[in-house]
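Predict fold of Bcr/CflA family efflux transporter; 402 aa.
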Amino acid sequence: MQKQLPNHPSLVMCLIIMLSPIGQMAIDIYVTALPAMRHDFGVSQQQIQLSVTAYLLSFAIGQLFYGPLADAWGRRSTLLFGLGLYLLGSVLLLSTDHFALFLAARIVQGIGVACGSVVMKALAPDHFAGKELAHVMTYMVIGWGMGPIVAPVLGAQLQIHWGWQSCLYFLLAYGAILFLIVFFGLKESLKKTVPLKLKLIIENSQMIYANREFQLCFLIMGLCYGVLLSFNLCAPFMVQDVLHRSPVFFGNVALAMGGAYFSGVFSNRIIAGRIAAARLCCSAAMINIFTSIVMVALALQWGLNLFSLIIPTLLITFFSGVIFPNMMARSVSMYPALAGLASSLLGFSLTLCAGLVMYLSSLLPIDSLLPLALLYLFIAISSGAMLFRIYRAEPVLALKSA
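Predicted 3D structure, encoded as tokens:
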């Protein structure tokens, strides 16, 4: 590989922040329009929800390939290939009014956009180390959290003024901008290639997956991510169809959820070094368990209403945001020599876990709050048990990389 001048840190930081939300944004920007899309395509609620689930699963599977490619081809070439595939899927979405083709295009889009989630995690250790890397990882997660903050509100406004198809035009334009930045601005940063050999990939993957701590990290991250996804999949129908509120109203609710997540993530920057990560994450898990129990009690007492749906979910989302970046920082630092593959496996595994949560939530009835509340309780108890297992040997260790 030819020697390249290093990229300017500001360019890399901006690119990472711009790549961070696109995968989540491609879900959240049109969740407010799911009821309208169901009507336009003439399909059932479960079928239109499948367009989200299929995208997420293809997004998960795509991440399996981009890690090895990023370590073999380089970061720049892999990004250009993936973003090109994403743009192809985006164009196909806008070219059909048949639901089956729409679903296929969402799969192409999901496979393509997965490159950003993987390569941004590999770009960070290519250019930063130590405290700088820790700060970049935090901003990466903050950028990821901007998706659920901005996208639903933007999607609701686009839907009201220009129809839900305008959301797809926005995704196409955003991807095109990223493609141009990478094509004209990014130099290759991979210092040493890893041969693209299936046997070597399998051996390295087995080594990474054999790490019990890595397993627990991606499971916890997947469950935390699943909280956001399950709300975004079920709540549009609960709020609009059952509680008879407008798409703009739901967009504002989704904005509040994104703000809660963002606040949880950003709180790590404020309290880093003051409270041990073990105490912080385990306390957050305990609060989520208690809040989920309260949500179940509210569902039994009052059923589905805005208060019992929104307030407990806001709290659970906030403390999931506290936990998520600690687990990401912990997991991505385990294998710096295999950053691409490790990021690929991490992204695939946590997204697959979140996809399973999303699939389960798509089976829930939308006219009752209790099933969703019970799902949140299961998530809170499971993630709490795994967190206690990770931190039981280091009760006072401060994880500053969060």
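Residues 1-5, 395-402 have pLDDT under 50 and may be disordered.
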